[in-house]
Amino acid sequence: MTIPSALNRDRAQSLPSDLDALRQRIEVTARKSGARAVAVALHDIESGTELHYEADRWFHGASTIKVAILLAVYGEIDRGRLVPQSRVHVRNRFLSAYDGSPFRVLADRDADSEVHAAIGKTMRISELALHMIATSSNLATNLLLDLIGLETVQRTIDHFGLKGLDVRRGVEDEKAYEHGIVNRVTANGLVALLRLIAEERAYTPELSREMLDILHQQEFKKGIPARLPREVRVAHKTGDISTVAHDAGVVYPPQRKPYVVAILTEWAADAGSRSPTIAAISHAVYDELRGAKAVPNGA
Amino acid sequence: MDGFRLEKPRRDALMPGGALRDREGRTRQLPRYFFEIDSWNAALDYELAPHFHLWEFIQTDVRESGALRIFPRYVPCAVSLTATMLERFREAVGEPVRIAANGGYRSPQHELTSHASTHCWASAVNIYRIGDEYLDTRERIERYAEVAREALPGAWIRPAGEDRGFSDDHLHLDFGYVVAVPHDAPGDPFNPKLEADPL
Questions:
Q1: Which of A18, B97, B114, B147 has the lowest CB atom count within 10 Å?
Q2: For the domain that residue B164 is a member of, what is the CATH number?
Q3: Model ipTM?
Q4: pLDDT tens-digit readout, A88-122
Q5: Nearest CA to CA, how far is B181 from chain A (Å)?
Q6: How far from A294 is each of A9, A21, A288, CA to CA, in Å?
Q7: Cβ–Cβ below 8 Å for A147 and B62
Protein backbone atom coordinates (compact mmCIF):
# COMPACT_ATOMS: atom_id res chain seq x y z
CA MET A 1 0.00 0.00 0.00
CA THR A 2 1.37 3.43 -0.94
CA ILE A 3 1.33 5.96 1.86
CA PRO A 4 1.00 9.46 0.49
CA SER A 5 3.82 11.81 1.45
CA ALA A 6 2.98 14.83 3.60
CA LEU A 7 2.86 17.03 0.54
CA ASN A 8 0.61 14.61 -1.24
CA ARG A 9 -1.66 14.39 1.78
CA ASP A 10 -1.91 18.19 1.63
CA ARG A 11 -2.68 17.84 -2.04
CA ALA A 12 -5.28 15.17 -1.33
CA GLN A 13 -6.93 17.43 1.21
CA SER A 14 -7.08 20.19 -1.38
CA LEU A 15 -8.63 17.94 -3.98
CA PRO A 16 -12.36 17.92 -3.21
CA SER A 17 -12.97 21.07 -5.21
CA ASP A 18 -10.98 19.56 -8.13
CA LEU A 19 -12.96 16.36 -7.83
CA ASP A 20 -16.16 18.36 -7.97
CA ALA A 21 -14.99 19.62 -11.34
CA LEU A 22 -14.15 16.08 -12.44
CA ARG A 23 -17.49 14.84 -11.17
CA GLN A 24 -19.23 17.55 -13.19
CA ARG A 25 -17.29 16.61 -16.33
CA ILE A 26 -18.31 12.98 -15.85
CA GLU A 27 -21.93 14.00 -15.37
CA VAL A 28 -21.95 16.13 -18.50
CA THR A 29 -20.25 13.40 -20.55
CA ALA A 30 -22.68 10.79 -19.25
CA ARG A 31 -25.71 12.97 -19.97
CA LYS A 32 -24.61 13.82 -23.52
CA SER A 33 -23.71 10.20 -24.31
CA GLY A 34 -27.23 8.87 -23.91
CA ALA A 35 -25.97 6.02 -21.72
CA ARG A 36 -28.54 4.48 -19.40
CA ALA A 37 -26.02 4.49 -16.59
CA VAL A 38 -22.42 5.47 -16.00
CA ALA A 39 -20.27 4.65 -13.00
CA VAL A 40 -16.69 5.63 -12.24
CA ALA A 41 -14.35 4.65 -9.42
CA LEU A 42 -10.88 6.10 -9.10
CA HIS A 43 -7.98 5.56 -6.74
CA ASP A 44 -4.80 7.54 -7.28
CA ILE A 45 -1.88 5.61 -5.80
CA GLU A 46 0.27 8.75 -5.95
CA SER A 47 -1.91 11.01 -3.84
CA GLY A 48 -4.48 8.69 -2.29
CA THR A 49 -7.20 10.67 -4.03
CA GLU A 50 -10.41 8.76 -4.60
CA LEU A 51 -13.57 9.42 -6.57
CA HIS A 52 -16.73 7.36 -6.44
CA TYR A 53 -19.42 8.14 -8.96
CA GLU A 54 -22.29 5.66 -8.81
CA ALA A 55 -19.43 3.36 -7.87
CA ASP A 56 -21.47 0.83 -5.91
CA ARG A 57 -24.06 0.36 -8.65
CA TRP A 58 -24.11 -3.20 -9.98
CA PHE A 59 -23.59 -3.78 -13.72
CA HIS A 60 -23.46 -6.90 -15.84
CA GLY A 61 -19.75 -7.63 -15.60
CA ALA A 62 -19.20 -8.72 -19.24
CA SER A 63 -15.53 -9.55 -19.74
CA THR A 64 -14.23 -7.49 -16.82
CA ILE A 65 -14.86 -10.52 -14.60
CA LYS A 66 -11.93 -12.15 -16.36
CA VAL A 67 -9.59 -10.18 -14.09
CA ALA A 68 -11.12 -11.96 -11.08
CA ILE A 69 -10.59 -15.29 -12.82
CA LEU A 70 -6.98 -14.29 -13.56
CA LEU A 71 -6.50 -13.53 -9.85
CA ALA A 72 -7.94 -16.92 -8.91
CA VAL A 73 -5.75 -18.78 -11.43
CA TYR A 74 -2.68 -17.08 -9.97
CA GLY A 75 -3.92 -18.05 -6.52
CA GLU A 76 -3.71 -21.68 -7.61
CA ILE A 77 -0.20 -21.00 -8.93
CA ASP A 78 0.72 -19.39 -5.60
CA ARG A 79 -0.58 -22.45 -3.74
CA GLY A 80 1.51 -24.70 -5.99
CA ARG A 81 -1.51 -26.48 -7.48
CA LEU A 82 -0.70 -25.16 -10.95
CA VAL A 83 2.32 -23.78 -12.73
CA PRO A 84 2.09 -21.34 -15.65
CA GLN A 85 3.58 -24.00 -17.93
CA SER A 86 0.91 -26.57 -17.03
CA ARG A 87 -0.94 -27.80 -20.09
CA VAL A 88 -4.70 -27.75 -20.41
CA HIS A 89 -6.79 -29.74 -22.89
CA VAL A 90 -8.53 -27.26 -25.19
CA ARG A 91 -12.07 -28.54 -25.41
CA ASN A 92 -15.14 -26.54 -26.32
CA ARG A 93 -17.62 -28.16 -23.99
CA PHE A 94 -18.74 -26.72 -20.69
CA LEU A 95 -21.52 -27.35 -18.22
CA SER A 96 -24.12 -24.71 -17.42
CA ALA A 97 -24.12 -23.21 -13.93
CA TYR A 98 -27.91 -23.49 -14.04
CA ASP A 99 -28.53 -27.19 -14.62
CA GLY A 100 -25.27 -28.80 -15.71
CA SER A 101 -26.35 -29.09 -19.33
CA PRO A 102 -23.53 -28.78 -21.88
CA PHE A 103 -22.91 -25.60 -23.87
CA ARG A 104 -20.24 -24.30 -26.23
CA VAL A 105 -18.54 -21.02 -26.97
CA LEU A 106 -19.49 -19.99 -30.49
CA ALA A 107 -16.37 -19.41 -32.54
CA ASP A 108 -17.89 -16.53 -34.49
CA ARG A 109 -18.78 -14.69 -31.25
CA ASP A 110 -15.32 -15.08 -29.77
CA ALA A 111 -12.72 -12.45 -30.42
CA ASP A 112 -9.89 -14.95 -30.51
CA SER A 113 -9.62 -17.70 -33.12
CA GLU A 114 -6.23 -18.97 -31.94
CA VAL A 115 -7.65 -20.84 -28.97
CA HIS A 116 -10.42 -22.35 -31.12
CA ALA A 117 -7.74 -23.55 -33.55
CA ALA A 118 -6.18 -25.54 -30.70
CA ILE A 119 -9.31 -27.60 -29.95
CA GLY A 120 -8.28 -31.20 -29.30
CA LYS A 121 -4.73 -30.16 -28.39
CA THR A 122 -3.32 -28.54 -25.27
CA MET A 123 -2.29 -25.00 -24.39
CA ARG A 124 -0.29 -23.73 -21.44
CA ILE A 125 -2.07 -21.95 -18.58
CA SER A 126 0.09 -18.88 -19.25
CA GLU A 127 -1.06 -18.84 -22.88
CA LEU A 128 -4.71 -19.21 -21.91
CA ALA A 129 -4.41 -16.45 -19.33
CA LEU A 130 -2.92 -14.14 -21.92
CA HIS A 131 -5.67 -14.94 -24.44
CA MET A 132 -8.34 -14.49 -21.76
CA ILE A 133 -7.16 -10.95 -21.05
CA ALA A 134 -5.38 -9.59 -24.12
CA THR A 135 -7.90 -10.72 -26.73
CA SER A 136 -10.70 -11.51 -24.28
CA SER A 137 -11.01 -15.11 -25.47
CA ASN A 138 -14.20 -16.59 -24.04
CA LEU A 139 -12.98 -20.11 -24.77
CA ALA A 140 -9.75 -19.52 -22.83
CA THR A 141 -11.79 -18.05 -19.98
CA ASN A 142 -14.12 -21.01 -19.72
CA LEU A 143 -11.22 -23.46 -19.92
CA LEU A 144 -9.48 -21.78 -17.00
CA LEU A 145 -12.71 -21.47 -15.04
CA ASP A 146 -13.49 -25.13 -15.70
CA LEU A 147 -10.02 -26.05 -14.47
CA ILE A 148 -10.05 -24.14 -11.18
CA GLY A 149 -13.81 -24.10 -10.51
CA LEU A 150 -16.22 -21.26 -9.76
CA GLU A 151 -15.87 -21.90 -6.05
CA THR A 152 -12.15 -21.11 -6.27
CA VAL A 153 -12.91 -17.73 -7.83
CA GLN A 154 -15.42 -16.92 -5.12
CA ARG A 155 -13.03 -18.13 -2.43
CA THR A 156 -10.34 -15.85 -3.85
CA ILE A 157 -12.69 -12.87 -3.84
CA ASP A 158 -13.64 -13.62 -0.24
CA HIS A 159 -10.02 -14.18 0.78
CA PHE A 160 -9.07 -10.68 -0.28
CA GLY A 161 -12.27 -9.20 1.16
CA LEU A 162 -13.28 -7.80 -2.22
CA LYS A 163 -16.79 -6.38 -2.48
CA GLY A 164 -18.55 -5.61 -5.73
CA LEU A 165 -17.51 -8.73 -7.65
CA ASP A 166 -19.95 -11.57 -8.24
CA VAL A 167 -18.69 -14.37 -10.52
CA ARG A 168 -21.37 -17.03 -10.81
CA ARG A 169 -20.94 -18.70 -14.20
CA GLY A 170 -18.78 -19.11 -17.28
CA VAL A 171 -18.98 -16.95 -20.37
CA GLU A 172 -21.77 -17.59 -22.89
CA ASP A 173 -23.69 -19.79 -20.51
CA GLU A 174 -26.99 -18.71 -22.05
CA LYS A 175 -29.17 -21.02 -19.99
CA ALA A 176 -27.77 -19.60 -16.76
CA TYR A 177 -28.23 -16.07 -18.09
CA GLU A 178 -31.88 -16.78 -18.97
CA HIS A 179 -32.43 -17.93 -15.41
CA GLY A 180 -30.94 -14.83 -13.85
CA ILE A 181 -27.48 -16.20 -13.07
CA VAL A 182 -25.36 -13.21 -14.05
CA ASN A 183 -21.78 -12.14 -13.40
CA ARG A 184 -21.89 -8.67 -11.86
CA VAL A 185 -19.39 -5.99 -10.94
CA THR A 186 -19.31 -2.52 -9.46
CA ALA A 187 -16.78 0.15 -10.31
CA ASN A 188 -15.53 0.08 -6.72
CA GLY A 189 -15.16 -3.70 -6.89
CA LEU A 190 -13.01 -3.57 -10.01
CA VAL A 191 -10.82 -0.79 -8.61
CA ALA A 192 -10.26 -2.75 -5.40
CA LEU A 193 -9.33 -5.82 -7.46
CA LEU A 194 -6.92 -3.93 -9.71
CA ARG A 195 -5.36 -2.13 -6.75
CA LEU A 196 -4.40 -5.50 -5.29
CA ILE A 197 -2.47 -6.25 -8.45
CA ALA A 198 -1.08 -2.75 -9.07
CA GLU A 199 0.14 -2.39 -5.48
CA GLU A 200 1.69 -5.88 -5.69
CA ARG A 201 -0.41 -7.23 -2.84
CA ALA A 202 -1.83 -10.12 -4.85
CA TYR A 203 0.06 -13.12 -3.38
CA THR A 204 3.66 -12.03 -4.12
CA PRO A 205 5.16 -9.01 -5.90
CA GLU A 206 6.41 -11.39 -8.62
CA LEU A 207 2.98 -12.90 -9.28
CA SER A 208 1.38 -9.45 -9.17
CA ARG A 209 3.84 -8.25 -11.79
CA GLU A 210 3.10 -11.28 -13.97
CA MET A 211 -0.61 -10.45 -13.88
CA LEU A 212 0.14 -6.80 -14.62
CA ASP A 213 2.26 -7.86 -17.55
CA ILE A 214 -0.70 -9.78 -18.96
CA LEU A 215 -3.01 -6.79 -18.42
CA HIS A 216 -0.48 -4.57 -20.21
CA GLN A 217 -0.87 -6.72 -23.31
CA GLN A 218 -4.52 -5.75 -23.76
CA GLU A 219 -5.25 -5.39 -27.47
CA PHE A 220 -8.56 -3.49 -27.25
CA LYS A 221 -7.58 0.12 -26.80
CA LYS A 222 -10.67 2.14 -27.66
CA GLY A 223 -11.58 2.81 -24.04
CA ILE A 224 -9.30 4.10 -21.28
CA PRO A 225 -6.12 4.52 -23.40
CA ALA A 226 -7.76 5.98 -26.52
CA ARG A 227 -7.36 9.68 -25.69
CA LEU A 228 -4.35 9.50 -23.41
CA PRO A 229 -0.88 10.57 -24.54
CA ARG A 230 1.11 7.80 -26.19
CA GLU A 231 3.68 7.68 -23.42
CA VAL A 232 1.00 6.71 -20.90
CA ARG A 233 0.92 2.94 -20.38
CA VAL A 234 -2.31 1.24 -19.40
CA ALA A 235 -2.79 -2.27 -17.98
CA HIS A 236 -6.50 -2.91 -18.39
CA LYS A 237 -9.45 -5.12 -19.22
CA THR A 238 -12.43 -4.19 -21.30
CA GLY A 239 -15.92 -5.68 -21.18
CA ASP A 240 -18.34 -5.30 -24.02
CA ILE A 241 -21.70 -6.91 -24.73
CA SER A 242 -24.82 -5.53 -26.38
CA THR A 243 -25.97 -3.50 -23.38
CA VAL A 244 -22.80 -2.69 -21.46
CA ALA A 245 -19.36 -1.35 -22.24
CA HIS A 246 -16.72 -1.20 -19.54
CA ASP A 247 -13.02 -0.59 -19.14
CA ALA A 248 -11.03 -0.91 -15.93
CA GLY A 249 -7.31 -0.54 -15.56
CA VAL A 250 -4.13 0.79 -14.06
CA VAL A 251 -2.88 3.96 -15.75
CA TYR A 252 0.83 4.80 -15.63
CA PRO A 253 1.48 8.44 -16.51
CA PRO A 254 5.20 9.20 -16.81
CA GLN A 255 7.06 10.48 -13.76
CA ARG A 256 4.39 9.61 -11.22
CA LYS A 257 2.78 6.63 -9.58
CA PRO A 258 -0.18 5.05 -11.34
CA TYR A 259 -3.87 5.49 -10.74
CA VAL A 260 -6.55 2.83 -10.93
CA VAL A 261 -9.83 3.60 -12.66
CA ALA A 262 -12.97 1.69 -13.60
CA ILE A 263 -15.49 3.17 -16.03
CA LEU A 264 -18.70 1.18 -16.38
CA THR A 265 -21.52 2.06 -18.77
CA GLU A 266 -24.92 0.63 -19.64
CA TRP A 267 -26.73 1.26 -22.94
CA ALA A 268 -29.72 0.52 -25.08
CA ALA A 269 -28.83 -2.42 -27.32
CA ASP A 270 -28.39 -0.33 -30.48
CA ALA A 271 -26.62 2.64 -28.91
CA GLY A 272 -23.42 4.04 -30.38
CA SER A 273 -20.64 6.17 -28.84
CA ARG A 274 -19.91 3.61 -26.16
CA SER A 275 -16.12 3.56 -26.42
CA PRO A 276 -15.87 7.33 -27.06
CA THR A 277 -17.76 7.94 -23.80
CA ILE A 278 -15.32 5.77 -21.85
CA ALA A 279 -12.40 7.45 -23.60
CA ALA A 280 -13.77 10.93 -22.78
CA ILE A 281 -14.19 10.10 -19.09
CA SER A 282 -10.73 8.53 -19.00
CA HIS A 283 -9.30 11.69 -20.55
CA ALA A 284 -11.09 13.86 -17.98
CA VAL A 285 -9.65 11.75 -15.13
CA TYR A 286 -6.17 11.98 -16.61
CA ASP A 287 -6.51 15.74 -17.04
CA GLU A 288 -7.60 16.20 -13.46
CA LEU A 289 -4.87 14.05 -11.96
CA ARG A 290 -2.09 15.44 -14.11
CA GLY A 291 -1.56 18.16 -11.56
CA ALA A 292 -1.57 15.71 -8.70
CA LYS A 293 1.82 14.21 -9.45
CA ALA A 294 4.29 13.59 -6.63
CA VAL A 295 6.25 16.54 -5.42
CA PRO A 296 9.77 15.50 -4.38
CA ASN A 297 10.55 16.08 -0.72
CA GLY A 298 12.29 19.39 -0.20
CA ALA A 299 11.24 20.76 -3.56
CA MET B 1 8.32 -52.53 -17.76
CA ASP B 2 6.72 -54.46 -14.94
CA GLY B 3 4.63 -51.90 -13.07
CA PHE B 4 5.30 -53.72 -9.79
CA ARG B 5 8.95 -52.67 -10.08
CA LEU B 6 8.28 -48.95 -10.31
CA GLU B 7 8.95 -46.62 -7.41
CA LYS B 8 6.00 -45.86 -5.15
CA PRO B 9 4.71 -42.52 -6.53
CA ARG B 10 4.37 -43.94 -10.02
CA ARG B 11 3.06 -47.26 -8.78
CA ASP B 12 0.40 -45.45 -6.77
CA ALA B 13 -0.63 -43.46 -9.84
CA LEU B 14 -0.59 -46.33 -12.34
CA MET B 15 -2.02 -48.95 -9.94
CA PRO B 16 -0.44 -51.86 -11.89
CA GLY B 17 -2.50 -55.01 -11.52
CA GLY B 18 -4.93 -53.13 -9.30
CA ALA B 19 -8.68 -53.08 -9.64
CA LEU B 20 -11.32 -50.54 -10.63
CA ARG B 21 -15.05 -50.96 -10.45
CA ASP B 22 -17.16 -50.24 -13.51
CA ARG B 23 -20.51 -48.44 -13.37
CA GLU B 24 -22.30 -51.68 -12.66
CA GLY B 25 -20.00 -52.50 -9.76
CA ARG B 26 -18.01 -55.20 -11.55
CA THR B 27 -14.30 -55.38 -10.79
CA ARG B 28 -11.87 -54.92 -13.68
CA GLN B 29 -8.18 -55.69 -13.27
CA LEU B 30 -5.78 -53.01 -14.48
CA PRO B 31 -2.73 -53.72 -16.69
CA ARG B 32 0.55 -54.54 -15.04
CA TYR B 33 2.96 -54.17 -17.98
CA PHE B 34 3.86 -50.86 -19.58
CA PHE B 35 5.97 -49.32 -22.28
CA GLU B 36 8.52 -47.00 -20.71
CA ILE B 37 9.09 -43.79 -22.67
CA ASP B 38 12.22 -41.83 -21.84
CA SER B 39 11.48 -38.53 -23.52
CA TRP B 40 9.01 -36.64 -25.66
CA ASN B 41 11.35 -37.12 -28.62
CA ALA B 42 11.27 -40.85 -28.08
CA ALA B 43 7.45 -40.73 -28.06
CA LEU B 44 7.50 -38.72 -31.29
CA ASP B 45 9.78 -41.27 -32.92
CA TYR B 46 8.14 -44.47 -31.68
CA GLU B 47 5.90 -45.83 -34.44
CA LEU B 48 3.10 -48.08 -33.23
CA ALA B 49 1.44 -48.24 -36.65
CA PRO B 50 2.24 -46.52 -39.95
CA HIS B 51 0.14 -43.46 -39.08
CA PHE B 52 0.19 -43.57 -35.28
CA HIS B 53 3.11 -42.74 -33.06
CA LEU B 54 3.25 -43.20 -29.33
CA TRP B 55 3.05 -39.46 -28.48
CA GLU B 56 -0.59 -39.27 -29.57
CA PHE B 57 -1.58 -41.74 -26.87
CA ILE B 58 0.19 -40.05 -23.97
CA GLN B 59 -0.93 -36.44 -24.49
CA THR B 60 -2.50 -35.58 -21.16
CA ASP B 61 -2.97 -32.28 -19.40
CA VAL B 62 -2.64 -30.91 -15.90
CA ARG B 63 -5.44 -33.21 -14.74
CA GLU B 64 -3.10 -36.23 -14.95
CA SER B 65 -1.25 -37.26 -11.79
CA GLY B 66 1.87 -35.14 -11.28
CA ALA B 67 4.02 -38.28 -11.01
CA LEU B 68 2.99 -39.25 -14.54
CA ARG B 69 3.54 -35.89 -16.20
CA ILE B 70 7.30 -36.24 -16.11
CA PHE B 71 9.50 -38.59 -18.09
CA PRO B 72 9.95 -41.47 -18.13
CA ARG B 73 6.26 -41.93 -18.90
CA TYR B 74 4.36 -45.20 -18.94
CA VAL B 75 1.57 -46.56 -21.11
CA PRO B 76 0.04 -50.06 -20.99
CA CYS B 77 1.33 -52.46 -23.63
CA ALA B 78 -2.16 -52.83 -25.12
CA VAL B 79 -1.60 -49.44 -26.76
CA SER B 80 0.11 -51.23 -29.66
CA LEU B 81 -3.07 -53.23 -30.36
CA THR B 82 -5.17 -50.07 -30.13
CA ALA B 83 -2.90 -48.36 -32.66
CA THR B 84 -3.28 -51.32 -35.02
CA MET B 85 -7.06 -51.07 -34.79
CA LEU B 86 -6.88 -47.33 -35.40
CA GLU B 87 -4.73 -47.87 -38.46
CA ARG B 88 -7.48 -50.06 -39.87
CA PHE B 89 -10.02 -47.34 -39.09
CA ARG B 90 -7.82 -44.76 -40.77
CA GLU B 91 -7.70 -46.91 -43.91
CA ALA B 92 -11.50 -47.05 -43.89
CA VAL B 93 -11.98 -43.26 -43.59
CA GLY B 94 -9.07 -42.42 -45.88
CA GLU B 95 -8.12 -39.35 -43.85
CA PRO B 96 -5.78 -38.52 -40.95
CA VAL B 97 -7.35 -39.45 -37.60
CA ARG B 98 -6.51 -37.21 -34.63
CA ILE B 99 -6.64 -38.35 -31.01
CA ALA B 100 -7.61 -35.64 -28.52
CA ALA B 101 -5.47 -34.62 -25.58
CA ASN B 102 -6.61 -36.71 -22.58
CA GLY B 103 -8.16 -38.99 -25.21
CA GLY B 104 -5.55 -41.75 -25.27
CA TYR B 105 -4.15 -43.34 -22.12
CA ARG B 106 -5.25 -41.84 -18.81
CA SER B 107 -4.15 -43.23 -15.49
CA PRO B 108 -6.61 -44.24 -12.76
CA GLN B 109 -5.58 -41.03 -10.94
CA HIS B 110 -6.39 -38.73 -13.85
CA GLU B 111 -9.10 -36.31 -12.75
CA LEU B 112 -11.29 -37.28 -15.69
CA THR B 113 -11.12 -40.99 -14.91
CA SER B 114 -14.39 -42.27 -13.58
CA HIS B 115 -15.18 -45.88 -12.71
CA ALA B 116 -13.27 -48.39 -14.82
CA SER B 117 -12.66 -46.16 -17.83
CA THR B 118 -11.06 -48.16 -20.62
CA HIS B 119 -8.68 -45.23 -21.16
CA CYS B 120 -6.84 -46.67 -18.13
CA TRP B 121 -6.17 -49.79 -20.21
CA ALA B 122 -4.99 -47.74 -23.24
CA SER B 123 -7.68 -49.54 -25.18
CA ALA B 124 -9.95 -46.57 -25.91
CA VAL B 125 -9.43 -43.34 -27.81
CA ASN B 126 -11.32 -40.08 -28.23
CA ILE B 127 -11.06 -38.85 -31.81
CA TYR B 128 -11.82 -35.16 -32.18
CA ARG B 129 -10.91 -34.65 -35.82
CA ILE B 130 -10.82 -36.67 -39.02
CA GLY B 131 -9.20 -34.91 -41.96
CA ASP B 132 -10.49 -31.35 -41.75
CA GLU B 133 -13.69 -32.25 -39.95
CA TYR B 134 -14.14 -31.68 -36.24
CA LEU B 135 -16.39 -34.34 -34.75
CA ASP B 136 -18.61 -31.91 -32.88
CA THR B 137 -22.00 -32.62 -34.41
CA ARG B 138 -24.28 -35.61 -34.06
CA GLU B 139 -24.26 -36.09 -37.84
CA ARG B 140 -20.48 -36.31 -38.08
CA ILE B 141 -20.09 -38.51 -35.01
CA GLU B 142 -22.72 -40.95 -36.26
CA ARG B 143 -21.32 -40.97 -39.80
CA TYR B 144 -17.84 -41.99 -38.59
CA ALA B 145 -19.28 -44.34 -35.96
CA GLU B 146 -20.91 -46.24 -38.80
CA VAL B 147 -17.56 -46.51 -40.61
CA ALA B 148 -15.97 -47.76 -37.37
CA ARG B 149 -18.64 -50.42 -36.89
CA GLU B 150 -17.99 -51.76 -40.36
CA ALA B 151 -14.21 -51.59 -40.17
CA LEU B 152 -13.80 -52.78 -36.58
CA PRO B 153 -16.31 -55.48 -35.68
CA GLY B 154 -16.35 -55.86 -31.92
CA ALA B 155 -15.40 -52.30 -31.18
CA TRP B 156 -17.73 -50.41 -28.84
CA ILE B 157 -18.61 -46.86 -29.86
CA ARG B 158 -20.10 -44.38 -27.43
CA PRO B 159 -23.40 -43.14 -28.83
CA ALA B 160 -23.76 -39.50 -29.89
CA GLY B 161 -25.63 -37.27 -27.48
CA GLU B 162 -25.33 -34.81 -24.65
CA ASP B 163 -26.28 -36.93 -21.67
CA ARG B 164 -23.99 -38.88 -19.38
CA GLY B 165 -22.61 -41.91 -21.21
CA PHE B 166 -22.86 -40.18 -24.60
CA SER B 167 -20.41 -37.99 -26.46
CA ASP B 168 -21.07 -34.76 -28.35
CA ASP B 169 -17.62 -33.44 -29.22
CA HIS B 170 -15.64 -36.56 -30.15
CA LEU B 171 -15.89 -40.14 -31.33
CA HIS B 172 -15.08 -42.58 -28.54
CA LEU B 173 -13.74 -45.90 -29.89
CA ASP B 174 -13.34 -48.60 -27.31
CA PHE B 175 -11.88 -52.09 -27.56
CA GLY B 176 -12.81 -53.26 -24.08
CA TYR B 177 -10.62 -54.25 -21.14
CA VAL B 178 -7.64 -55.44 -23.14
CA VAL B 179 -4.53 -56.47 -21.23
CA ALA B 180 -1.33 -57.23 -23.13
CA VAL B 181 1.32 -59.32 -21.40
CA PRO B 182 4.75 -59.43 -23.07
CA HIS B 183 6.38 -62.85 -23.60
CA ASP B 184 9.22 -62.11 -21.21
CA ALA B 185 6.90 -60.94 -18.41
CA PRO B 186 7.52 -62.73 -15.12
CA GLY B 187 3.85 -63.72 -14.78
CA ASP B 188 1.86 -64.32 -11.62
CA PRO B 189 2.46 -67.01 -9.00
CA PHE B 190 0.37 -70.19 -9.36
CA ASN B 191 -3.02 -69.66 -7.77
CA PRO B 192 -4.68 -72.96 -6.78
CA LYS B 193 -8.01 -71.24 -6.29
CA LEU B 194 -8.05 -70.08 -9.91
CA GLU B 195 -6.95 -73.54 -11.04
CA ALA B 196 -9.89 -75.11 -9.25
CA ASP B 197 -12.44 -72.60 -10.40
CA PRO B 198 -11.17 -70.77 -13.50
CA LEU B 199 -14.48 -69.01 -14.05
A1: B114
A2: 3.30.1380.10
A3: 0.88
A4: 999 999 999 999 999 999 887 766 689 999 999 99
A5: 31
A6: 10, 21, 14
A7: yes
